């Protein structure tokens, strides 16, 4: 008798997988992972997958029992769906690692209601994604199936997981909501947080507009309580609204570094914080104007400004003031309430907290706005710091209705797999196909329960295509992460993503005779956005990188000029197109390194709930690639910043840039470390300034490795056994 998924006991695959971490003659026994993968299918997947005699029988069962929606399937003939399935079967897809298969079947594959059987294989999930996002277009469905089965394109988890399912969360990855300085807005935003957390995805909130603790309240004797009590309200909202306990509600709150509550805001994450103010589950982010870097560099005092008095004086919420430009006027204006703090002291407090907790994220808000081709102002980011889009504030009356409906943000994401996309028979067609898949999600998304999100999505049609597997690609092609060749490759690759998403956005605008709202006031409409590409052609220059792009179309100045003219004439459908997310579990399924940052270990160790440890060898690990797989913790973080800064030039939004530090820094890594190897606040200060000067828009998370440097098991090994 086969054991169901609920009571699998005598299995060998976990043990086989764990043997990768036990060296054999000082070599990594990689073949053990292949054995674990084979055992997983034999002992787990094959006996517990529900069998159907035909595609028709499978689809009838899945729709009749409310596993799949009928609507998207009814857009196609059965003959076409069967031909799509036949194509997918002919591609002979196989997972390359135990971790990839395990993650797919444990987190993504559809299971019976009682959790005892699998109802999907990888090919099924790909088929349902392709059919769903193509929305009846057979040619697009085939193209999408082709991109996904070859793992050139990977939709973000909410999209990949939920596409086609009858009982599902949203397909959108995350949301951004602005709060203005009044009780109606605070109340409405808490409701928005509850609703958005319920349907899935992380929620970003900016509290920069709220008056500080102690600020006067018109018509009342008392004074305002500041941002911290509001943070607590949001934290409780996310804890309560958690998709029926399926996932922890996730939120991030942002505050401008010139807000008077800044110290109290940071102290909510300190380990020794008073329980009354401590926030355990909220993430923190700072909005940092250029002026802060200047004041810290010059070791000057800085003034913090009351949002209430600034809004009264300027007639717009605090978020919409250019503090760098207005700083001297704000200081000189006697009607603006302000207080003084030492800029270096605050900078060190930020670094101390980053060492302790990894927070706060840093958004270089002026950098983001300088590079922004859209008319309007970027005022915040999302839970992973890669979404940077303009917003307009709402005005809410005493009946909690919108007198002015502003624009908030929902973002749907997808990722190119760099290793596989570089092998695409048609790079441009691949990227255009991905752009269409993401476009369907923005078109279909209609979050009525939060009108400002619904309005922003309806007007702006934003998407976020990104990338994963950069370090894997470098290692596979024997390039050191951060080397000149690696930067040259990064420059050309992300230029191509930019070019082809622009081409397709322009094609969609032509077809539909529709551009994003306010296109005419963008730098796309004037054409000035394209000038740098026309003036300075980006193309491979070294022999190595030329070889890597051999056979791939590289646009010339003339191609950019033609695209510029077409966009000026017909417009762009999407206000925003590119963003690089941190992509966690989804990169395992793709058997590639996450995002565009370096790997942390040759053999990564993952703690899985109830299971114990699972080991994941770096993709394509071999004696040839091993020297190019330097751990992020042993790498000069300026190399990582250089790679991100190179990609950032082409990405209209942001990237989740994580900095990886050891508590005890390897000798010789940073030239300023002459007195101690211990990580200090100065190290983080220097790296933040370096990222700022390189034009990086955001720093996501600081990960500090505090172990005793004893990299156990196979990470010490010097060679691999394949």
UniProtKB/TrEMBL annotation:
UniProt enzyme class: oxidoreductase
Species, as recorded: Vagococcus luciliae
Protein name from the UniProt record: Ribonucleoside-diphosphate reductase
SUPFAM superfamilies listed in its UniProt record: PFL-like glycyl radical enzymes (SSF51998), R1 subunit of ribonucleotide reductase, N-terminal domain (SSF48168)
InterPro entries named in the record: NrdE_NrdA_C (IPR013346), RNR_1b_NrdE (IPR026459), RNR_lg_C (IPR000788), RNR_lsu_N (IPR013509), RNR_N (IPR013554), RNR_R1-su_N (IPR008926), Rrm1 (IPR039718)
PROSITE patterns the UniProt entry points to: RIBORED_LARGE (PS00089)
Reactions this protein catalyses: a 2'-deoxyribonucleoside 5'-diphosphate + [thioredoxin]-disulfide + H2O = a ribonucleoside 5'-diphosphate + [thioredoxin]-dithiol
Pfam family, one: Ribonuc_red_lgN
Similarity remark: Belongs to the ribonucleoside diphosphate reductase large chain family.
Domain Ribonucleotide reductase large subunit: 560-582
Its biological purpose: Provides the precursors necessary for DNA synthesis. Catalyzes the biosynthesis of deoxyribonucleotides from the corresponding ribonucleotides.
Chain segments annotated as coiled-coil in the UniProt record: none
Single GO MF descriptor: ribonucleoside-diphosphate reductase activity, thioredoxin disulfide as acceptor
Keywords attached to this entry: Allosteric enzyme, ATP-binding, Deoxyribonucleotide synthesis, Disulfide bond, Nucleotide-binding, Oxidoreductase
Protein EC: 1.17.4.1
């Amino acid at each position: 008798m086969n054991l169901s998924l609920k009571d699998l006991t005598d299995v060998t695959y976990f043990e086989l997988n764990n043997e990768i971490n036990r060296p054999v003659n000082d070599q990594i026994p990689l073949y053990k992972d292949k054995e674990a993968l084979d055992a997983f299918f034999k002992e787990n997947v094959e006996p517990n997958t529900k069998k159907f005699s035909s595609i028709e029988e499978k689809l009838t069962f899945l729709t009749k029992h409310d596993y799949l929606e009928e609507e998207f399937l009814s857009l196609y003939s059965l003959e076409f769906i069967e031909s799509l399935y036949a194509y997918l079967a002919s591609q002979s897809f196989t997972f390359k690692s135990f971790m990839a298969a395990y993650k797919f079947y444990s987190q993504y594959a559809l299971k019976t209601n009682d959790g005892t059987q699998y109802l999907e294989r990888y090919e099924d999930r790909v088929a349902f994604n392709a059919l769903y996002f193509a929305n009846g277009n057979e040619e697009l469905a085939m193209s999408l199936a082709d991109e996904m089965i070859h793992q050139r394109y990977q939709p973000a988890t909410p999209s990949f997981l939920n596409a086609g399912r009858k009982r599902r969360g949203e397909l959108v990855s995350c949301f951004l909501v602005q709060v203005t300085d009044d009780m109606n807005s605070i109340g409405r935003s808490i409701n928005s947080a509850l609703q958005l957390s319920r349907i899935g995805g992380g929620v970003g909130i900016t509290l920069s507009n709220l008056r500080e603790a102690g600020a006067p309240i018109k018509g009342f004797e008392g004074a305002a309580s500041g941002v911290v009590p509001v943070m607590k309200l949001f934290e409780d909202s996310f804890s309560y609204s958690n998709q029926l306990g399926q996932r922890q509600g996730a939120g991030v709150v942002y505050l401008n570094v010139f807000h008077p509550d800044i110290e109290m805001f940071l102290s909510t994450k300190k380990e020794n914080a008073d329980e009354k103010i401590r926030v355990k589950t909220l993430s923190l982010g700072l909005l940092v104007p250029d002026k802060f870097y200047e004041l810290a560099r010059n070791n000057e005092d800085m003034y913090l400004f009351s949002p209430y008095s600034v809004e009264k004086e300027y007639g717009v919420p605090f978020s919409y003031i250019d503090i760098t430009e207005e700083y001297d006027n704000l200081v000189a204006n006697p009607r603006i309430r302000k207080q003084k703090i030492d800029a270096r002291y605050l900078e060190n407090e930020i670094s101390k907290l980053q060492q302790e907790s990894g927070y706060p994220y840093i958004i270089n808000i002026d950098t983001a706005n300088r590079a922004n081709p859209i008319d309007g102002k970027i005022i915040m980011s999302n839970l992973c710091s890669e979404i940077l889009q303009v917003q307009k504030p709402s005005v809410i009356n005493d009946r909690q209705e919108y007198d002015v409906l502003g624009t908030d943000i929902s973002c749907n994401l997808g990722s190119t797999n760099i290793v596989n996309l570089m092998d695409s028979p048609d790079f441009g067609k691949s990227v255009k196909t991905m752009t269409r898949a993401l476009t369907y999600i923005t078109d279909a998304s209609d979050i009525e329960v939060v009108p400002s999100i619904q309005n922003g999505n309806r007007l702006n049609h934003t998407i976020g295509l990104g990338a994963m597997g950069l370090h894997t690609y470098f290692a596979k092609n024997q390039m050191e992460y951060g080397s000149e060749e690696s930067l040259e490759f990064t420059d050309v690759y992300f230029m191509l993503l930019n070019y082809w998403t622009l081409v397709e956005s322009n094609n969609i605008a032509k077809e539909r005779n529709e551009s994003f709202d306010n296109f005419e006031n963008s730098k796309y409409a004037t054409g000035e956005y394209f000038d740098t590409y026309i003036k300075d052609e980006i193309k491979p220059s070294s022999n190595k990188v030329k070889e890597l792009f051999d056979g791939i179309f590289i646009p010339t100045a003339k191609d950019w000029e033609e695209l510029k003219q077409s966009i000026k004439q017909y417009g762009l459908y999407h206000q925003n197109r590119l963003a690089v997310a941190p992509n966690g579990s989804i990169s395992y399924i793709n058997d590639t390194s996450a995002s565009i940052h370096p790997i942390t270990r040759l053999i990564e160790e993952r703690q899985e709930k109830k299971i114990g440890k699972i080991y994941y060898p770096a993709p394509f690990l071999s004696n040839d690639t091993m020297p190019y797989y330097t751990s992020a913790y042993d790498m000069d973080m300026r190399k990582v910043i250089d790679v991100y800064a190179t990609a950032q030039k082409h990405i209209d939004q942001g990237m989740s840039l994580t900095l990886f530090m050891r508590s005890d820094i390897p000798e010789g890594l940073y030239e300023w470390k002459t007195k101690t190897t211990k990580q200090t606040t100065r190290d983080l200060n220097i790296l933040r300034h370096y990222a700022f000067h390189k034009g990086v828009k955001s720093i996501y998370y600081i990960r500090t490795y505090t172990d005793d440097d004893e990299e156990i098991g196979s990470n010490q090994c010097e060679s691999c056994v394949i």
